[in-house]
C-alpha cells in the first residue's frame, strides 16, 4: 500500500550567506488598512467636566469649538495640552455667559421662594460654576457675599409683598454640580441616529425663612 504525503515546498537557503553573517532579506507583503484622515488639531471651546475612570485615568468632557453639543466627547488627559488643563479651576468666562447663568440662577431661586420643596435644579454651565466658586464638587455657601462673581440683582435672594413682608433664602445652603449625559435621537441623512448630549445642572438644597424689608 502506497502512502501519499503532502510535503511543504522546500525553500532554497543560501548557506554561504547565512554562515558568513550576510543579511538575508525576506520580503513580506502586508495589507495596511486605510484610515480616515482627520485634521491635525481641534480647538477646545471649553472643558465641561471631568471624571476618574476605573483604571485611574482622568477623562475630560470637551466642547469642541465650531461643533455642536452633539459632538462633545470624553477625552483622556494626555490628549489635552497642559496650558488648558491648568485653567480647569479658573476658566475664562465672558460676560454674556455669566449674565445668562445669573438669570437662570435668579429664576430658580424665585421659584424656590414660591414653592414648598427644599431642592431646586438649575441649568448652569459647570465651567461657570468653577469660575465663580473655584471648586468642582459640592459647596456650602455661607452668605450672599459668596455669590460676588455672579452678576445677580440685589433682591435675588428674597421676595417681598406690598407691606414689606416676605420670604428669603436661609443660609447656609448647599449646591452640588452635576453632569448628566442625555440620550437624544436625531434624523441624520435619512437615518435615525442616537446621540448623547451633556446636560449641566446645579442641585441646590436650601430652606427659606420669613423676613421684613428692614431685616435685609
Automatic annotation (TrEMBL):
**Keyword GTP-binding assigned:** no
Location(s), subcellular: Nucleus
Q: Which UniProt keywords apply?
A: Nucleus
Q: What is its main location?
A: nucleus
| Superkingdom of source | Eukaryota
List the SMART domains: CHROMO
Matching PROSITE patterns:
CHROMO_1 (PS00598), CHROMO_2 (PS50013)
Q: What residue stretches are annotated with the Chromo domain?
A: 42-80
Q: Which GO terms describe its cellular component?
A: nucleus
Asked whether the keyword Nucleus is assigned, the reply is: yes
What's the name of the protein?
A: Chromo domain-containing protein
Amino acid at each position: 500500500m502506497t502512502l501519499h504525503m503532502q510535503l511543504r515546498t522546500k525553500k532554497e537557503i543560501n548557506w554561504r550567506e547565512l554562515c558568513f553573517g550576510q543579511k538575508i532579506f525576506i520580503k513580506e507583503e502586508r495589507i495596511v488598512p486605510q484610515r480616515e484622515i482627520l485634521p491635525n488639531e481641534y480647538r477646545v471651546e471649553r472643558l465641561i467636566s471631568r471624571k476618574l475612570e476605573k483604571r485611574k485615568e482622568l477623562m475630560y468632557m470637551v466642547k469642541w469649538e465650531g461643533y455642536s453639543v452633539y459632538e462633545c466627547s470624553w477625552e483622556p488627559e494626555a490628549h489635552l495640552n497642559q496650558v488648558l488643563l491648568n485653567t480647569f479651576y479658573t476658566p475664562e468666562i465672558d460676560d454674556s455667559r455669566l449674565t445668562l447663568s445669573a438669570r437662570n440662577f435668579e429664576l430658580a431661586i424665585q421659584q424656590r421662594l414660591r414653592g414648598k420643596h427644599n431642592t431646586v435644579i438649575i441649568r448652569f454651565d459647570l465651567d461657570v460654576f468653577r469660575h465663580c466658586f473655584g471648586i468642582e464638587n459640592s459647596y456650602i455657601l455661607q452668605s450672599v457675599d459668596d455669590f460676588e462673581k455672579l452678576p445677580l440683582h440685589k433682591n435675588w435672594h428674597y421676595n417681598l409683598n406690598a407691606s414689606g413682608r416676605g420670604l428669603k433664602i436661609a443660609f447656609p445652603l448647599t449646591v452640588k454640580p452635576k453632569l448628566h449625559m442625555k440620550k437624544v435621537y436625531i434624523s441624520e441623512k435619512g437615518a435615525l441616529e442616537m446621540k448623547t448630549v451633556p446636560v449641566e445642572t446645579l442641585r441646590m438644597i436650601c430652606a427659606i425663612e420669613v423676613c421684613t424689608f428692614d431685616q435685609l
